[in-house]
């Protein structure tokens, strides 16, 4: 076969592959932010381009008569953190969803009755999920300012929680990126073929900066595609006739 013919075949393979290959939702990354001042600002986290969702951690005081309180260690703490308003708007304007994580490892929270649960649900809806225009009509300002946090489109999405560095999980559970890609992700792909997957959920932004974990696993399937294309290229070009 002539070199020109083989080059045309290779071009056809690459063209078909580029149209049929689409990244799976399993490569989307959600990151926790808010528990270490060394992690930088929320805006900076969103500007990395690594994350599709940011979880603000945490609302860690609520229920049974307690005044709800936010705990973004070192960034902001208390019943009001409106200093984050512009950063949340910045993230959302760049198509990054921002959620509020409730609970956390060291807070004071509990729901003592169905009425208690209803009151807390009302608090969440009024303060974090109500549209700014509705708040203005009632002359209200939410704890995070004039923002509306995102709501998951589905309630049955599966997220794969992972520590972003060994010291993020002192008790164990850390999976090195290479092991994740070669040993774990093929099984995750099987699950995602029949279930709605939200991708990876990493703890946390500080440890991700430390380890560069998200950047190593981001678009892992695209990286696999590139390796496939490289192998095809070498196999084809390696047999090109010089005549």
Automatic annotation (TrEMBL):
Keywords: Hydrolase, Signal. SUPFAM superfamilies: (Trans)glycosidases. GO terms for molecular function: hydrolase activity. One of its GO terms (cellular component) is extracellular region. It comes from the Eukaryota. GO terms for biological process: defense response to fungus. Residues 1-26 form the signal peptide. Gene3D superfamilies: Glycosidases. This is Glycoside hydrolase family 18 protein. It comes from Medicago truncatula.
